[in-house]
Each structure stands twice: as structure tokens, then as C-alpha cells.
Amino acid sequence: MSETFEFDRSISAKTNGSILPFQRLHYLRNRTAVEKPGEKKQSNCQKKIPEKNIAHQVAVYILELDNKKLRKIRIKDISRNFHINASFLSRKFKEDKECTLCEFIQKVKIQRAVFLLQQLRQCKNRQGTEIFKPLTVNVISDTLGFSSTEYFIRCFKKRMGVSPNQYRKYFQPNGMGMVVNTAAWS
User: Fold this and answer.
1) Could you give the CA distance from residue 149 to residue 163 in angstroms, rounded to a whole number?
2) What residues make up the domain containing 116?
3) Residue 92 and residue 116 share a domain
4) N or C: less crowded end of the chain, CB within 10 Å?
């Protein structure tokens, strides 16, 4: 935590206070343990990630993926990206985050699904007038890479307590954002 704060302070001074998320991620991925005097410097491809930071860095990496990459993400891809054995990565992640890597990826996908359920897409009706329609559950499950719509609905209901369509009914969009539709709760 203190290392991130020091990074924020040093980059803020250099960039007039603006820190971009990818700058923080780049710093977190590429930092190494303090080098000892007389020790040869390692090249970027030889740098080792300290074990205590692996889970945090993997979590940041997953959170910053776009939907297209999140759709296809696998543990072996993450382990290759971080140059770590997949079983070691899974074990360290579970120790540090108290949930498995697969569960974490699924949580991120469900969070994205909640966001997508609130979105409207612009389309035209038969008369040619522009209208706004919500994204279908099929489109959302496909966008996030779930194997089937039924599996997506099951996962969503397990995490959120209601199905995606019920969630959409409970939270109706209005001009000021999402507001609870109290009539739907009764």
C-alpha cells in the first residue's frame, strides 16, 4: 500500500497530478525488489514479481481487461503473461484474496453484466425512428464469454440473488441514473 502511495506521489509530481490507470499498472507489473550494491541489474524480461504482490497484480490486470479480452481469459493465459506456473498462481491468489481465480473472474464478469444490463442500445424501428432498447441477456452472456445463456443466468442469480431480467425490472433507468423501482419489489 505504501509503495503504491509513493508511486502516486512521485508520478503526480511529474505529471501535474494526473495518474493514468495504465501507468499505475505498468509500475506495479515492472517493479522489483530493492537491488543490492554490486548486483547485476536484470533486464525487463528477467525481472521477477515479488510473491506477495502476485495476487494484487493479477487482480488489477483482470479488472483492467476490456470485455473482448475478458471473454477469452484463461488462467493459463494469465500465468503466461506473468511468467508464473498456473497452479502456483492459483494457490497464491486463493491465499491472498480468499477466493479462487475462477471465482474472481466470474465476479468481475457479473459486475460487468450489471453495468451492461443498465445500458441501452440505439436502433431504428420499422418506421425508421430511432429508439433505445436494452441489451438482451443473450447478447450480454455472449459478450462476457459465458458458455451459455442458462449458465450466465445461473451465475448471475447465485451472485446477485435475482435473475438478470428481474434485476433489470427492479432498477429502471431514468435521466438521473439508476433508481429502485419500488413497485417491482412488492
Assistant:
1) 11
2) 111-185
3) no
4) C
